[in-house]
Amino acid sequence: MERPKMDRGEFKAADEMFANAWRASLPELEARARRFAEGQRDRAEELLANTAIKALLFMRRSPQTITDPCGFLFVVLRHVFLDSVRRRGRDREVFDRHRDIDNDSNGFAHDGLSALQKLELDQQLGRVVNAVARLSRDQRRLFAYRFIDDLPYPVIAEKLHINQPLARKRVELLRNRIKSAMARD
Hints:
The protein has helices spanning 8-36, 41-61, 69-95, 115-133, 137-148, 153-160, 164-184. By secondary structure, the chain is mostly helical. The radius of gyration is 20 Å and the shape is flat.
């Protein structure tokens, strides 16, 4: 089955949609890419480049399916990041022939930590869980949007029917509240 050909006007509309969304979201996309790349500039730039390519190609193929171009860019960035993690994992498996495959903890963030470090990490996670449990219902919802669902600020603002600066401020206040609650524990 052959796809219908797009004319120049449709490509131009898709390109404009991409360019507008990219310009509007670039600072937050860069920050998210740096966080995914653990501060490594080269990896973050590679994630952004791959995101731009994949998003533009998809927008050109199916512009009518995109209802939130800015949000779509964050979804693509997340998928590009996950693909890179999988690829690096496969590369390591090819070269790491002495890997302990019977170890149940393979693949978790605490791999390679000492028992004391794992205990400290578990205790800290417990304090975060307790702090979040003491939040109001609306604060827990905001926590879930930002830190569990990893939603970008424009999407959070839309869901809460507020503007982006207010969404950012609420997340900042939420972070401070959780930090102070953890310090008291």
